[in-house]
Amino acid sequence: LAPPAAAEAAAEGAGEDSKAEEGGKKKRRKRWLPLESNPEVMNKYIAGLGFPTIMYKFVDVLSTDDWALEMVPGPAKAVMLLFPISEMSEKHRNEEATAIEKDGQVVADRVYYTKQTVGNACGTVGLIHAVANCGDVLGGDVPLEPGTFFHNFITRTKGMSPDERATALEEDDALDAAQAVATREGVTAVPDVNDAVNAHFICFVEVDGHLYELDGRKKFPINHGPCESGMLLYAAAKAVKQFTARDPTSYNFAVTALVPNTD
Predict the structure, then answer these.
(1) Which position among 129, 151, 200, 224 bears the catalytic label?
(2) How much is the pTM?
């Protein structure tokens, strides 16, 4: 796995200056700067949005091998993966969608999932997936402070469809300032907001005994099968190995996990 790297991929179409018709004129979709896969940056970001980092925080996962997983405090609440978008990853994404649309899959009603329409927002979307699926608004055990972005946004969108949630996020200007600050606090150089980025954040969570991959560029959550309680990190590591196997010559992978804060 690679060291922290600044990388997010645009939502489908947003990397090509996605536009929408408004009053007969073409309007460019909102774009953000990419977020860095850096626990310090991520923790400061989510704390400012109402997540109790005194209880849980993101840490680096150095490898998907057992020796590295055993070093990570547990149990994990979510796992974030940053991976390079490649010809093979896109081929798999399309084949996977076709197979699921043909054969179907089981997705628990409690899974909170949103699409991504804001360019370079996959890091923020991944964090929303992580927080929503462990927060108390939807029945999780992590308390989200009322009146904060996370509590307000998840409460407001919990009854919406994934597409409606994506629209709500794009129209929620309250997040713009916090996201802009977070993207400038990493260790890598800040790119131009219009630069092409070829890496993407996704999130893994356990809901009702199953491992789910939540990717705002996909048509739906991906059920990766059973996941024992408390074993999310190990189950997610197996799924991550599938990603690395599809792109074996790349080292541009990074994994972080939301785990108990033992400081």
Answers:
(1) 200
(2) 0.88
Give me the catalytic one of 122, 134, 203, 227: 122
pLDDT tens digits for range 157-166? 999 999 999 9
Cα atoms in the 13 Å half-sphere on the side-chain side of 213: 24
In order, the DSSP letters of 82-149 are: EEE--HHHHHHHHHHHHHHHHH-----TT-------SBT-HHHHHHHHHHHTTBGGGT-SB---TTSH
> In angstroms, rounded to a whole number, what is the distance separating the alpha carbons of residues 204 and 195?
27
In the residue annotation, 203 being an active-site residue is answered as no
DSSP lists the bridge partners of residue 258 as 58, 78
Residues 32-77 pLDDT 10s: 877 889 999 999 999 999 999 999 999 999 999 999 999 999 999 9
Number of H helices, E strands in the chain: 8, 8
Instruction: Let me know if 122 is a catalytic residue.
Output: yes
Give the number of other CB atoms < 10 A from CB of residue 114: 23
Of 70, 124, 65, nearest in space to 244 by CA: 65
